[in-house]
Every structure is written in structure tokens, then in C-alpha cells.
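Q: Here's a chain of 79 amino acids. Please give me its 3D structure as C-alpha cells.
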Amino acid sequence: MSHVPHELAEEFPDKTDRLHDLKTTNAHFAKLFDEYHVVNREIHRIETRVEAATDERSTDLRKQRMHLKDEIAAMLSQD
């Protein structure tokens, strides 16, 4: 499998343990985590031309990924 940029472990390298803990103990976080990966992989398929998409679709997906990442970052920073 090719490398997919923007994986959460790369985005938050100092929070990998917290990512795992929240994913296994917080249902809302797990949903956000999974949704982020679905969107991120779709963006990667579009960027590598495996899948076609309009510019509008690409932009919408990037905005969705950014929103999910912001929500995930907020949850990671809570103690």
C-alpha cells in the first residue's frame, strides 16, 4: 500500500498514545477518528488520480478533513 499523507499519527506524533487511548475509550472520538481516515483516504485517491472528482468536491473534502482534524486536536489537548 502506498503512503497516505496526513495520517493522524503523523499529524500528532507526540500524541500517539493519547490517540489510541481516546479511540478505545471514547465513542465520539472513535467516530471522528474513523471519519477522518475515510475522508483522508478519499482525498489521497483523488490526489493520486485513482479517483476522479470535481474541484468543488476536492475542496469540500479538504474542508471536512480540516474540521475533523481541529475537533480531534481539541479533544487531544483536553486532560
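Q: Can you summarize the key feature?
A: The radius of gyration is 13 Å.
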